[in-house]
Amino acid sequence: MTEAAEFDLAVVGAxxxxxxxxxxxxxxxxxxVVLERGARAQGASVRNFxxxxxxxxxxxxxxxxxxxxxxxxxxxxxxxxxxxxxxxLWVAAQRPEAAAVLEAFLxxxxxxxxxxLTRSEALSRCPQLQTRGLEAVLLSAHxxxxxxxxxLPAIAGWLAETWGVTFRWxxxxxxxxxxxxxxxRGTLRAPLVVVCPGDDLSTLFPERLAxxxxxxxQMLRLESPxxxxxxxxxxxxxxxxxxxxxxxxxxxxxxxxxxxxxATQLRHxxxxxxxxxxxxSLVVGDSHDYEAPDAPFASEALYALMLDEYRAxxxxxxxxxxxxxxxxxxxxxxxxFLVEAPSPGVRLVLVTSGVGASTGFAxxxxxxxxxxx
Length: 373
Ligand SMILES: Cc1cc2nc3c(=O)[nH]c(=O)nc-3n(C[C@H](O)[C@H](O)[C@H](O)COP(=O)(O)OP(=O)(O)OC[C@H]3O[C@@H](n4cnc5c(N)ncnc54)[C@H](O)[C@@H]3O)c2cc1C
Fold this sequence. Notes:
The protein contains eleven helices and 18 strands. By secondary structure, the chain is of the alpha/beta class.
């Protein structure tokens, strides 16, 4: 690359947030370059569930962006040839206190498009949820699931071929003094820059990111159980992790009960998401370690707790484990997103609440609109 390279807007990072900003910018007619340290995206965006979640997202901060992003996901998936491998959400309440949370949720405006199934209705539609304690199931049609590890490269390819976005892989951006970007492969000029570094809090604008933390999640892929789930499944523990449920008054009693019955799971941020892939395999997780996110080791004890939760919800032994992996993302105690303007024409954009797959497209639109208008 030379000083002569000219773009209207440079995006740092080819995760879902960077690709979302690139899409929003090319849709506004800009010439866009994406600069990515890896030979391909390798961060949280390809390690997640690929679960685009609307129902249960925090009402004020996350839910509006999740609803808009879901619309964009449908457009992009169709255009970029990304298969939607599963649709819908099943929240399986195993305790009366969890069922009370779901009933309260149903009385809010966030429940538009959702319904509550009784135990017998749920079992007739999905006999696999044979947990003895099943009380009720919240059914939402809003969610969709993609296989992130193939979806991200497909979206990048589509942005390059259909929209003319330039990708510079294996290129680290060391410093930004817009319109000049210093990279590991020379300098590049773009008057507008959007930095989407994921959980790299130390390379660019570290002083702006000093208050953030990171968290590490453990994930599993299980072989096909031999049946098809009707949607992605969550359990009682999940009701304490998603703000749309957790902030309801009824969640207090659930929390009290889970603190007695599942204190270890709560301490390690364990809850259950079971998502199914096109080949029938199940992506199962997860745990949250905020203390030592850089530790290179994954705990077998935490995997065992996740598999116990799988057993409790399905009433079946889990299929053999095919893969184990970890992922990390940036976290803030006081906000779901960080958008800052470290200098004119430059925006620093992070999802600080682990919901980037569900909200990235709307976030990208908001950032580009604010930069241009
Ligand atoms: C295990 C796991 C499960 C998850 N499940 C879900 C889920 O079900 N639903 C959901 O909505 N969200 C989920 N998330 C959260 C979601 O994946 C993240 O919020 C999202 O991927 C963040 O995207 P990003 O583009 O900001 O970061 P990343 O995907 O981490 O991408 C950042 C990129 O920037 C590059 N980069 C950084 N600095 C530089 C630099 N200086 N120069 C060049 N390149 C640079 C990195 O190499 C990286 O590729 C999950 C996360 C994890 C880890």
